[in-house]
Amino acid sequence: MKIFQMRYRFLTGVLIAFLALTLSACASKRLEGERQEDNISAEKQEAQKRAAIRMQLAIGYYQQGQFKVALEEIRQALLIAPDMVDAFSLRALIFMDMSEKQLAEENFLHALKLSPGNADISNNYGWFLCLNGREKQGLVYLDKAIKDPNYSAPGKALNNAGLCSLRLKDPAGAERFFMQGLREEPANPAINANLAKILFDRNEYTQARFYINRVLKYDVLAADVLWLAIRIEKKMGDEAAVVSLGTQLRRRHPNSKEYSLYQRGVFDE
């Protein structure tokens, strides 16, 4: 009995020592693995940071109209982060502005493949389709963006859907989109201007004036917006407002076709 107990104690001691060594080795391997994971994570974060800086530069160049430089920055970003959704999305917009339709579509579709539920990309791709004679298909993508409860810019998609409907000769559908857009963003200047144009074309000048006056509060006014405001005031018989707006048109856009029409007194074209 004593021998058994002594052997038992000896074996137990050996097992404990073995387990201690095993656990120590496992702990060492785990710590080594954690260090490797930390290193990989740190390297990944650093790579993402470098890719993000490239994208910031690309956005800046894009906004300045320096498309080739922007494309090079995007190329560099994708070398670092090949699945960067924003890079493909921005590259699609650049190709769109460059009238490179096939390249634009390829990049839009790849961006959507990487991020299928991305409302901003759906909006941009939908508008691209609308501009290229595929309005019905475009409205499908715009509708996806509109119905996304997490989309931060529903007014943009609703305005695009309204314009897309106008291209389909559907002013009633366009008006519904614009009115919905104003419920989301009452002060949106583009939506107010587009709704004013629909009402003007329908000879509803008082309502058209209401919406265009919302737009006139902004400092940056396009020539077509000022021209619409002038034509509305002309229909309303307010010559003082016509002259005042005409002065703004001359000061802001002296070489525009709208100012040429104003000078010639051609208000109904």
Would you give an account of this structure?
This protein starts with a helix and ends in a 5-residue tail after the last helix. The model is unreliable at 1-23 (pLDDT under 50). It has three domains: 46-115, Tetratricopeptide repeat domain (Serine Threonine Protein Phosphatase 5, Tetratricopeptide repeat); 117-186, Alpha Horseshoe (Serine Threonine Protein Phosphatase 5, Tetratricopeptide repeat), CATH 1.25.40; 211-269, no CATH class. It is mainly alpha-helical. The chain has 13 helices and no strands. Helix 1 (2-63) packs antiparallel against helix 2, helix 4 (101-114) packs antiparallel against helix 5 (119-131) and helix 7 (154-167) runs antiparallel to helix 8 (171-184). The chain has helices spanning 2-63, 67-80, 85-97, 101-114, 119-131, 135-147, 154-167, 171-184, 189-201, 205-215, 223-236, 239-252, 257-264.
Portion of residues in beta strands equals: under 5%
Secondary structure: number of strands = 0
Shape-level CATH architecture of the largest domain: Alpha Horseshoe
Q: What is the average per-residue confidence, as pLDDT, rounded to a whole number?
A: 87
How many domains comprise the coordinates? 3
Q: What would you call the shape? A: elongated
What radius of gyration results from the CA coordinates? Answer: 31 Å
Task: Detail the poorly predicted runs.
Answer: 1-23
Q: How many angstroms does the end-to-end distance come to?
A: 116 Å
CATH fold-level assignment of the largest domain: Serine Threonine Protein Phosphatase 5, Tetratricopeptide repeat
Reading the helices and strands in chain order gives HHHHHHHHHHHHH
- Going by CATH, what is the homologous superfamily of the largest domain? Tetratricopeptide repeat domain
- Judged by helices, strands and strand pairing, the structural class is mainly alpha
Question: Tell me about the biggest sheet?
Answer: none
Q: Please give the count of helices.
A: 13
Helical amount among residues, as a percent range? Answer: over 70%
Quick one: CATH class of the largest domain?
A: Mainly Alpha
